[in-house]
Amino acid sequence: MYSGAAAAAGSPRRDFISVTLGPEEAVGVGGYNNSKAWRRRSCWRKWKQLSRLQRSVILFLFVFLAVCGVISYTSIGEAWKSITNKSLDDQRTEQEIPRLKLANPAVLPAPQKADANHGDYPELSLQKPPKPPHVRRGPSNLQIKAPRRDMRLKTQRDTMRAVEELVEVDKVEKTEKSIISWRGAVIEPDQSTEPPSSKITEPEKPSSVEAEDQKEPVPINERQLAVIEAFRHAWKGYKDFAWGHDELKPLSKSYSEWFGLGLTLIDALDTMWILGLKEEFEEARKWVANDLVFDKNVDVNLFESTIRILGGLLSTYHLSGDSLFLEKAKDIGNRLMPAFKTPSKIPYSDVNIGRGTAHPPRWTSDSTVAEVTSIQLEFRELSRLTGDEKFQNAVDEVMKHVHILSGKNDGLVPMFINTNSGQFTHLGVYTLGARADSYYEYLLKQWIQGGKKENELLEDYMRAIEGVKKHLLQRSEPKKLTFVGELAHGHFSAKMDHLVCFLPGTLALGAHNGLAADHMKLAETLIETCYQMYAQVETGLSPEIVHFNLHAQKGHKDVEIKPADRHNLLRPETVESLFYMYRFTGDKKYQDWGWEILQNFNRYTRVPTGGYTSINNVQNPSNPEPRDKMESFFLGETLKYMFLLFSDDIDLINLDKYIFNTEAHPLPVWVPA
Ligand code: DMJ
């Protein structure tokens, strides 16, 4: 309440506003009158009572405040607007981040189901296993490309939309790239691979159906068609008379069992894939899914079941991408592990895969050197795929042990090794044939498989080849063919197993991988010899063992055959080496030699009702004496190498990306060239 303050001060100046409250204006007297008309009247009266100066000052202040208000409104408004927008954006971002996170899994492939993908043939536009181009292992990564420069992203929302668009584009590009055709023409390992490390947690992906370097499929030629026809004929016999059993007996139209595990069917799986036999493959796949059971009280040979069954399942997994085969491989791999429980860690030859027990042959506690040193490619790969190091550790232990073992002769190994003492036995006999052959082959191939880093393997291989040159090479008469003989307690024998014919191919593979050029020269001379082992025989088919003539005798060829050795088991080693030689030299004569061999197989071993048979007498064209047995490696190896030999497509199992196990099952090179 302000009443007559200026008057009370006795000042004449009219600058002071003097307000006299009349009785009717007093609050609380006569009640509170707050009507609008009264208030308007009262304000106006007060305004009139002010001096002109007072009114001017008030008006000036009012105008000044109004101008200031208008100026500041714009900036305050902007600031306010940005504050409110920001908080709205924040709210949106929080809601939409989960959406972005959810977008990632959408571009990753659905997890493979063991039973779901058996129909996923390459021609059906397979979604290849995604791989980050520079990441060697681990789960697939979402590849989000950096936004293009010209793309101006204004808000968080725009950014996310742009990322989603790029992801879409990426997805479409990947799908387009992964359309590949049936058959192995574009089979490529999908990714660089590495040996298992102690920190493996993610299982490896198959190397199949990679289509990044996709090119036009190379058409199948006449000779390849002839191989397909031969395979179909062999398969017909197996299917009609031996389905699900180990081996076909084509003449008696029955079968024989060795392990009772469908050996021929498993050995032939990847051949069917490579030859493009889709229907046959599918049928065999069904048998594996429904009928292949390893929980059986049966003794199997560790080496044979590793190279044929474990190797066959692993390579089929890589080619087809079908996880069924990996599951089966893991199962058999685990069941074979008891073989390594020996005092020396040198595995026993036999394992009961149902009981989990292992033992040496009944008559000895020795194992064969080739057998214990030719299971490494498969077990190492199983470790890489499963992330479980126990498989690799077990087989690496064997190689390390053999590396430092005494009893070698310039790198050449004896044929037996004792599972108790870990020492070589039956010293003094050296061969590249039966019981030692694939020791040499696997030294080189493990070195390649592991990315050429394991020097001890290379050392042992190089030393051994020097040993071969020094002790085992001789030239025959009259054609002066270079051959690999045997050494027994210091005495040279001019005996050469057909099995030794793996050597030219292995030497050529080594030379291709940067080893001494004279290895290639030796390969060229040796493959000529292996071919002559066919060409100089009446049926044009090689016997199991030949003896070379060291001295020229009238009317004698280079090759002599003893009655006990004149059988032919449809073995692959020569066509295997022809395949390598053709791949690395491009010399068509190797294809022609292979073609002759196929024709002679057709002439002398083909059984009209289906299947092929081994024969007892390669020297008698009118009666080669069929043995009534088709070995599983005829489908697993011989026909596969024939098909590859006749192909001009170096990407049909590219030798810089795959390494063949000793049963012709291709496994990925961990660090491809
Ligand atoms: C196959 O089982 C393998 O190639 C093995 O290394 C040797 N024997 C046969 C083929 O001859």
UniProtKB/TrEMBL annotation:
The active site is at residues 304, 437, 544, 573. Residues 104-155, 184-216 are annotated as: Disordered. GO terms for biological process: carbohydrate metabolic process; ERAD pathway. It catalyses: N(4)-(alpha-D-Man-(1->2)-alpha-D-Man-(1->2)-alpha-D-Man-(1->3)-[alpha-D-Man-(1->2)-alpha-D-Man-(1->3)-[alpha-D-Man-(1->2)-alpha-D-Man-(1->6)]-alpha-D-Man-(1->6)]-beta-D-Man-(1->4)-beta-D-GlcNAc-(1->4)-beta-D-GlcNAc)-L-asparaginyl-[protein] (N-glucan mannose isomer 9A1,2,3B1,2,3) + 4 H2O = N(4)-(alpha-D-Man-(1->3)-[alpha-D-Man-(1->3)-[alpha-D-Man-(1->6)]-alpha-D-Man-(1->6)]-beta-D-Man-(1->4)-beta-D-GlcNAc-(1->4)-beta-D-GlcNAc)-L-asparaginyl-[protein] (N-glucan mannose isomer 5A1,2) + 4 beta-D-mannose; N(4)-(alpha-D-Man-(1->2)-alpha-D-Man-(1->2)-alpha-D-Man-(1->3)-[alpha-D-Man-(1->3)-[alpha-D-Man-(1->2)-alpha-D-Man-(1->6)]-alpha-D-Man-(1->6)]-beta-D-Man-(1->4)-beta-D-GlcNAc-(1->4)-beta-D-GlcNAc)-L-asparaginyl-[protein] (N-glucan mannose isomer 8A1,2,3B1,3) + 3 H2O = N(4)-(alpha-D-Man-(1->3)-[alpha-D-Man-(1->3)-[alpha-D-Man-(1->6)]-alpha-D-Man-(1->6)]-beta-D-Man-(1->4)-beta-D-GlcNAc-(1->4)-beta-D-GlcNAc)-L-asparaginyl-[protein] (N-glucan mannose isomer 5A1,2) + 3 beta-D-mannose. One of its GO terms (cellular component) is endoplasmic reticulum membrane. Pathway: Protein modification; protein glycosylation. Its cofactor is Ca(2+). One of its GO terms (molecular function) is mannosyl-oligosaccharide 1,2-alpha-mannosidase activity. It holds the Pfam family Glyco_hydro_47. Belongs to the glycosyl hydrolase 47 family. This is alpha-1,2-Mannosidase.
